[in-house]
Amino acid sequence: MDFRSSDTITGPRTEDVLPTTATAAVKVVIVGGFGVGKTTMVGSVSEIRPLTTEETMTQAGVGVDDNAGVETKTATTVAMDFGRISLSEELILYLFGTPGQERFWFLWNGLFEGALGAVVLIDTRRLEVSFDVIGRLEERGVPFVVAVNTFPDAPHHPVEALRRALDLPDEVPMIDCDARMRASSRDVLMTLMRYLHSLAVPLA
Amino acid sequence: MSGPRRERRKADPEFLDPERLYVITGDLDDSERAALDLVTMVVAQAEPSPTFQPEQAAILRLCQAPLSVAEISAYLSLPFSVVTSLLSDLLATELIESRAPIVRATLPDRSLLEAVMHGLQKL
């Protein structure tokens, strides 16, 4: 039994406990390549210290994971960092930073299917790592915005040049951001919500 | 700007079938297989007692106030699939109550998005 005694489980800090009225949750997925700043962005806007949920991939990875020729069954642990924003007494927004490799997405039930939308975080020094991510979101019909994380030593390209390189339709918003800054990350989320709002059909 | 260029993809009908979305989040008749999302909110309906398994007692203790499945998984350091299995048992015996998330399948709902924007503006 490697489970810690329930007496030693550390739950949320007192100030992080949600009110009993918090009954409605929505989620947004922040997706991008390794080291692009997903966890930084989650941390800069989250009201709680970012948490990590894990999943273990065993035989479910056969035929999906790239382990051809490997005879022994291997278990891969995939971690996903997330944060939380209480939008009101009832409504909670969860932000999940997930690796770009789509082979991990199935681990979390309905991660993208249930999400309001996604933020694709890109690094102009390694633009091509985001190609597959964007393609997968297009296939799944998940609405997304593209946020360009401005690293100090990254080449600065005009937005229109990036849009051409990423082959993004004109309507998909692109925004520069500094994932370390709360206001900047908040603006990225606002851009996503305005975009979703523009796609939404008014209630009859 | 030179360098690699991406080619746009078309939406794959396999991912767009609304019936499929319903099947994932629905199926509420069968509590044994209640679909639990990362952001399903869980609230305990009972106090933990020494007769419970330690994992179940820990969940009941954590969920005296609402908590998402993802947070439960993080605080218990247990994989998501293990936590959903534990929660399914607790749901079946009505020791916890769950509230499914608002998912995009139930959209489009501008008032929800406006509520989100209003909340973000206060940050």
Automatic annotation (TrEMBL), chain A:
User: Is the keyword Chloroplast assigned to this protein?
Assistant: no
UniProt keywords, alphabetically: GTP-binding, Hydrolase, Nucleotide-binding
Q: Which domain of life is it from?
A: Bacteria
| Gene3D superfamilies, sorted | P-loop containing nucleotide triphosphate hydrolases
Q: Which InterPro entries match?
A: Gliding_Motility_GTPase (IPR052705), Gpn (IPR004130), P-loop_NTPase (IPR027417)
Pfam family, any one: ATP_bind_1
Q: Which family does it belong to?
A: Belongs to the GPN-loop GTPase family.
- Protein name from the UniProt record: ATP/GTP-binding protein
Species this chain originates from? Streptomyces durocortorensis
Classification of source organism? Bacteria, Bacillati, Actinomycetota, Actinomycetes, Kitasatosporales
Automatic annotation (TrEMBL), chain B:
Source domain of life is Bacteria
| UniProt cross-references to PANTHER family, sorted A to Z | DUF742 DOMAIN-CONTAINING PROTEIN
Q: Name one Pfam family in it.
A: DUF742
Could you identify this protein by its name? DUF742 domain-containing protein
